[in-house]
Write a structure and sequence with these properties.
Largest sheet: 11 strands, antiparallel
Number of strands: 41
Oligomer: single chain
Helix content: 10-25%
Radius of gyration: 27 Å
Distance between the termini: 49 Å
Strand content: 25-35%
Structural class: alpha+beta
Length: 697
């Protein structure tokens, strides 16, 4: 594994540009065939003219839109500013007190440089000793906005905390038709015509989840909400829309959405870039925790790309298609899936896990390798012609000692049993992956927390109960050692539990290993797994693993039930369908069997079940107790029936989703590229397929 490289964007150099403003206060910066970029020299507000539609996007509401605005003072100043900088002190007793700066600060100085198609604006606040630089550049599809790390200045007693970039770009009112799009679960809409609770905070959540090394943000038992899996937000305003893609530094940014009454009378959505975090620390074990702000900033370039949409494309389906195109352009999505005669059933099989009994550790086997072979044989004999298996609990004594994976647990059949299982599956044309977690290490192992665990903001080894999180390179090396042994056995892939779900900083004494570093290590590991074994799959599937994963398990199908979100939509499934197979909750573990089955049909997911040979009650005192109903004998008929329903949609497996829409209350349609429509009716608890003109049936 190679050490990741960090890209650094350069600052523009040259003479200051002093433009003359037109009658509307704006000066032309640059233009291409599709767009024109303008700037107001006095305020540095910007505007982008879409030549195709004639619509003009502005960084801030204009005078006409502000006539009925009620906020005053600092909030009004921010409403007119293309940025809001929040800073903290570096000395004194009030180092956690946050203050904000906008373009209304009297002693602020600005410097403009025009270079090619781009514009650079440097801001400096002498009284604070703070400064930063923003760069704008037109593209074929819209506007690119960048904050280079080299342009940040901290020369006094203040430090940059967060930076809101274009917080009111395209801001809409309650009279407009449309919504804000936020990356909540599969996708969330905040509609302008809906009543919203009087919240002071709004929707503010970090991409790829809050920093888990900051105590209080995260617990191993799970996030309190769905983690943002993709760095995208958007806005629809009447017949026009934009989708914003955070292309650099996205893992250290919040997506923020506000509704009228919070900070203004407008709906707005933007990215708030995180440079430092507030955290709790203790002077001693007996002392009460105190608040502090990290000293070293997250030294990352930040970049957001705005792509503009009009008319029939100005909706969340168009936004998703645009993000998919971006991923394809970057080579981050992989090639399109090949058509199949039958969709695969993803079959998870729990071997077993350990329990403590009479002061001793005992492995409880629920499905031996031989029994797993029998389950697959029975399914194939009854018509399930395409199967992918994922075997859990195969390590020695289960997950009692997370480092001691070999020899393979004897109660399941040992290495000979694993080889036989892999060989039999290969003969039957069934894929075999083994599940493993290489991030979490328990205190019972020989793992060295001081040397091998990630460090939190306070500099101590991050620990949650009896569990540590391994440094990314330690994870990669552990996985590589496991891969070489599984390859000898004949296993075709590894299903990773946390690599596609958890991203973190490592606050080493020598400097911060950022989330970008972690991201690169994990994607390299997935690439290596595919090279050595054949396949790599992940749980949850954050965007950084796309293109390096053959399957995503447990993709979120519901929102976080946030008060701000009015409607859940399949944005992420639209992006993925036809490129990366994905499943939702297993068919035997759903909270609402019928509704969640229909949701999988509506969102283009594949069938998945998590089974054991023996009754799941055997596992009630083990770490696999979440399998409250898993006996294959009890679920066999349901699996066959459900597989038949999913397999009826096999012609859609490799196709893009081109449109998703709500036809009526409880009734939705998903359109595929050959014209086929899948209509799901939740009130009737049914679905139907309308074949498109491009099909042969």
């Amino acid at each position: 594994m190679t050490m990741p490289k960090v890209s650094v964007n350069e600052l523009y150099e040259g003479e200051a540009w002093k433009p003359s403003a037109g009658a509307d206060g704006y000066a032309l910066v640059s233009e291409n065939d599709s767009y024109s970029l303008y700037v107001r020299p006095d305020t540095t507000e910007i505007a982008v003219l879409d030549k195709t539609s004639g619509y003009r996007w502005t960084s801030n509401p204009g005078d006409a839109e502000l006539k009925h605005e009620n906020v005053k003072g600092q909030l009004l100043d921010q409403l007119k500013s293309p940025f809001v900088m929040t800073h903290v002190r570096t000395k004194g007793k009030d180092q956690t007190v946050r203050e904000s700066l906008s373009n209304a600060v009297k002693d602020m100085t600005t410097s403009l440089i025009r270079q090619g198609d781009g514009l650079q604006i440097s801001y400096f606040f002498p009284s604070k000793g703070l400064g930063f630089t923003m760069q704008y550049e037109l593209t074929k599809t819209g506007l690119k906005v960048r904050v280079p790390s080299k342009g940040i200045k901290e020369e006094g007693e203040y430090a940059l905390f967060t930076l809101d970039i274009l917080p009111y770009f395209g801001a809409a009112s309650s009279q407009d038709d449309g919504y804000l799009f936020v990356p909540d679960g599969p996708g969330g809409l905040i509609r302008y015509d809906a009543a919203h609770a009087k919240l002071s905070r709004g929707y503010i959540h970090q991409v790829y989840g809050s920093e888990m090394t900051n105590s209080g943000n995260w617990t191993r038992s799970g996030q309190r909400r769905e983690t943002i899996a993709y760095p995208v937000f958007g806005l629809k305003k009447n017949d026009h829309a934009f989708v914003a893609i955070m292309t650099e530094g996205e893992d250290s940014a919040n997506v923020t959405a506000l509704s009228p009454g919070m900070k203004s009378s407008f709906f707005n959505v933007f990215s708030s870039q995180i440079y430092r975090e507030e955290y709790l620390y203790r002077m001693s074990r007996l002392a009460a925790p105190s608040k502090a702000v990290q000293l070293e900033k997250l030294d990352r370039d930040r970049e957001i790309e705005y792509r503009f949409l009009n008319d029939q494309n100005a909706n969340y389906s168009g936004m998703a298609a645009t993000y998919r195109e971006y991923l394809q352009e970057k080579g981050s999505l992989g090639k399109k899936l090949d058509p199949v005669a039958h969709v695969p059933l993803y079959l998870k099989i729990m071997g077993g896990n350990y329990e403590q009994a009479f002061g001793q550790i005992r492995y409880v086997a629920a499905t031996t390798f031989a029994q797993a072979e029998d389950i697959v044989r029975r399914l194939q004999e009854r018509g399930v012609t395409s199967l992918q298996t994922i075997y859990f609990g195969w390590t020695n004594q289960g997950d009692y000692n997370m480092e001691k994976r070999f020899p393979i647990e004897e109660a399941l059949g040992g290495e000979a049993g694993a080889q036989s299982f892999a060989s039999q599956m290969k003969e039957r044309g069934v894929g075999v992956s083994f599940y493993e977690d290489f991030l979490w290490i328990d205190s019972k192992s020989s793992f060295s927390p001081k040397q091998d665990a990630i460090r939190g903001i306070d500099g101590t080894a991050f620990v949650d109960g009896d569990w540590y999180v391994a440094k990314p390179m330690y994870t990669a090396v552990s996985a590589a050692n496991t891969i070489s042994k599984l390859k000898e056995i004949g296993v075709e892939g590894i299903h990773y539990s946390a690599v596609g779900e958890i991203l973190l900083n490592d606050y080493e004494s020598s400097g911060i290993r950022t989330r970008d570093y972690t991201k690169q290590i994990y994607t390299e590991l997935l690439d290596y797994t595919r090279k050595e074994l054949g396949t790599a799959s992940v749980f949850r599937g954050n965007a950084y693993v796309l293109g390096a994963s053959d399957y995503i398990d447990g993709l979120p199908s519901a929102s976080s039930y946030d008060f701000m979100v009015d409607e859940t939509v399949p944005f992420y499934p639209i992006v993925l369908h036809g490129f990366v197979p994905y499943t939702f909750e297993e068919g035997n573990l759903r909270d609402d069997e019928e509704v969640e089955f229909l949701k999988a049909i509506e969102y283009g997911a594949l069938p998945s079940f998590f089974v054991t040979h023996d009754d799941s009650r055997k596992l009630k005192n083990t770490g696999a107790s979440f399998l409250y109903s898993s006996s294959f004998d009890k679920w066999e008929e349901r699996m066959l029936k459900e597989y038949g329903n999913f397999d009826a949609l096999s012609s859609l497996y490799s196709q893009k989703i081109t449109l998703h829409e709500r036809l009526a209350d409880q009734r939705y349609a998903t359109l595929y590229e050959d014209g086929t429509r899948v209509i799901v009716d939740y009130s009737a608890k049914s679905f139907k397929v309308e074949k498109g003109a491009g099909t042969n049936e």
